[in-house]
Design brief:
heterodimer; A: mainly alpha; elongated; B: mainly beta; 1 helix
Chain lengths: 224, 108
């Protein structure tokens, strides 16, 4: 119902947008995306499949259609939902109760590569970003031997994430994660992810000791 | 003497929680690792442990090292050697364990 009304409203501003599909279930959304590859998806957080079903398919859309900008429409954008939407790949959040003209503006903004959120919502995201842990500090000796992508996989693997979870976070398939890990094992001469963690810890400890020695030498030189 | 190790050892000093199942009741103690490989661990502990005992081990990886959530290395193994305690009896004892299984677990 809401979907149809919205579609009619968009048709009234045809000069600004071309609506390529309008659907209301997760399966239909994914099919429509595959068939049309739109520039922007206006996705409700709650689809026919149940509450937050729209939010749940965000990572899959992000992973499969990385060129498509996702504007998440929410009935009442609360802190957790806003953070989750941005974390899952949305580039904008829109309050369903806001006027239609504002929705048009938000679509144009995200299609041009801008982020759409109220300052309060941006504040949620920034606060979550500040609170989130820093990426693990891999030793440069380990990092120097592997590519940037491989090191991202290593960071998550030594945090105990499964291949599936690593894939979700880095928008990779499980199979690709497995390939990256095997390549890293081969390069670093380790046999599994526990040994990978041990190697990272060991190299880090060595680096710290080397740094302490250098600092000690520097301090002695200053004293002399 | 012939080298018999099949996995590389890493000299790492990590806190180790040691679970010793005694008559089906798990008793926990804490120690400190001296070196770890994927096949074995050597740690020191103040409590008495006998050769042959099956242990549940949890090595704690400090968060400042991973930069993310706290991570544990969980292992199951059997004691293969216990180094003799010093004469005064208050020194920690060294324990060598052959590991059967290891995994990385996140503290979530």
């Amino acid at each position: 119902m809401h979907c149809d009304l919205l579609c009619k409203a968009f048709n009234s501003v045809r000069q600004r947008f071309q609506v390529v599909a309008s659907t209301s279930s997760t399966v239909e959304v994914l099919t429509a995306l595959q068939q049309n590859r739109p520039q922007v998806v206006v996705l409700s957080s709650d689809l026919q499949d149940g509450p937050l079903s729209g939010l749940r398919i965000l990572p899959e859309i992000r992973r499969t259609y990385s060129e498509t900008k996702i504007l998440m429409v929410m009935a009442s954008p609360n802190k957790e939902m806003v953070i989750e939407a941005f974390r899952s790949g949305a580039v904008g959040v829109f309050n369903r109760n806001d006027p239609f003209d504002l929705l048009c503006k938000s679509i144009e903004a995200v299609s041009q590569g801008q982020v759409w959120a109220r300052s309060e919502e941006l504040h949620y995201v920034l606060t979550a970003f500040v609170k989130s842990p820093k990426p693990p500090k891999l030793d440069p000796k380990v990092e120097g031997r592997i590519t940037v992508r491989e090191s991202a996989v290593v960071r998550l693997a030594v945090e105990g994430l499964s291949n599936h979870d690593i894939g979700q976070q880095l928008a990779l398939s499980e199979h690709t994660v497995k390939n990256y890990l095997f390549r890293v094992f081969d390069k670093l001469g380790v046999s599994n992810r526990v040994e990978l963690l041990l190697l990272c810890l060991h190299d880090q400890e060595n680096a710290r000791e080397e740094l302490a020695v250098k600092k000690g030498i520097a301090r002695r030189s200053v004293a002399e | 003497m012939k080298e018999r190790r099949i996995a590389r050892r890493y000299g790492l000093s990590l806190p180790v929680l040691v679970g010793v199942p005694i008559e089906s009741r798990a008793v926990a103690a804490s120690g400190k690792s001296r070196d770890i490989s994927t096949r074995g661990i050597y740690f020191t502990i103040r409590d008495d442990i006998s050769t042959g005992a099956k242990l549940d081990l949890t090595m704690i990886v400090p968060t400042e090292v991973t930069g993310g959530p706290e991570v544990f290395i969980k292992a199951i193994g059997a004691v293969v050697r216990v180094d003799k305690r010093m004469e005064n009896g208050e020194q920690p004892v060294g324990v060598a364990v052959a590991i059967e299984m290891t995994e990385i677990v996140r503290n979530e």
